[in-house]
Design a protein that fits this description.
Blueprint (H helix, E strand, L loop, with lengths): L1 H6 L2 E5 L4 H12 L4 E3 L11 H11 L3 E4 L7 H6 L1 H22 L3 E4 L29 H21 L2 E3 L1 E3 L1 E3 L12 H15 L3 E5 L5 E6 H14 L6 E3 L4 E3 H12 L4 E5 L14 H7 L7 H15 L1
Helix pairs in contact: 2-8, 3-5, 5-6, 7-9, 7-11, 9-11
Length: 313
Amino acid sequence: MSDHFWHDRRVCVTGGAGFFGSYVVEKLQQRGASYIFVPTIEEYDLVQLEDIQRMLRDANPNLIIHLAALVGGIGANRARPADFFYVNLMMGAQLIHESWKHGVEKLVAVGTICAYPKYTTVPFKEEHLWDGYPEETNAPYGLAKKMLLVQAQAYRQQYGFNTIYPLPVNLYGPRDNFDLETSHVIPALIRKCLEARQRGEKQVVLWGDGTPTREFLYVEDAAEGMLLAAEHYNGSEPFNLGSGQEISIKELAEMIARLTEFKGEIVWDTTKPNGQPRRALDTSRAEKFFGFRAQTSLEEGLRKTIEWYRNNL
């Protein structure tokens, strides 16, 4: 099914040159997709309407996977809330509208776990998406992306436009962003532990108190889930993409310290924010809709990510 599905489709992957996008593009190639268009930010600023229109003319896609986003950790979200709102909303809203006008057959509008309310019953079920306001530090980003779900459902209702809305949990893996100013928790922890070990430092200082929980999905698993959804799912309901495995930041830090052989002390800076208290997904909808289950355990994925970082940076 999958190889045949992609064979004669013209696929456009926004953000295809980024971390997650690079895996989606590789998996498309493995599935025999003969035409994959990856717009780069240098050539197409997707916040600008005319650049979106030009991209659609140049690519003439049947199917779009919209991964391009302005993303970052708690620090970046706190420093630039207006950017995180405006850039993500304008890219997504205009892209969906113009894709419908252009006659695109299907669009995968990728959401974010930050769209869930701050206090959501754990594990997060998709029907709880509207039960409250998101965690404050990333609410502008989360709400901008959540509007794409509203838009997708509205355009399906009025125009029959086939847009689906996955909600991937925090991704990690080789080729991730390891810049401490903008990275997410796993690459930041890996880098801090390895650099402290190299320098012979006795401690690593981390934000918050270590009590929040998170769920992580290995990037290759996420790319597989995204393409299975593109192939098999054509409904209006949003769906979580995750591993179904919850872990506290403290346990995560201890695991990474062990895997990087950092023997020093982990110190928690409680003047810094924790972010959302708990985050773990109910992943049954994705399994029911298109048979997706994560294959990579957290420890195995972390080992691969650490090995890549050591070899490449």
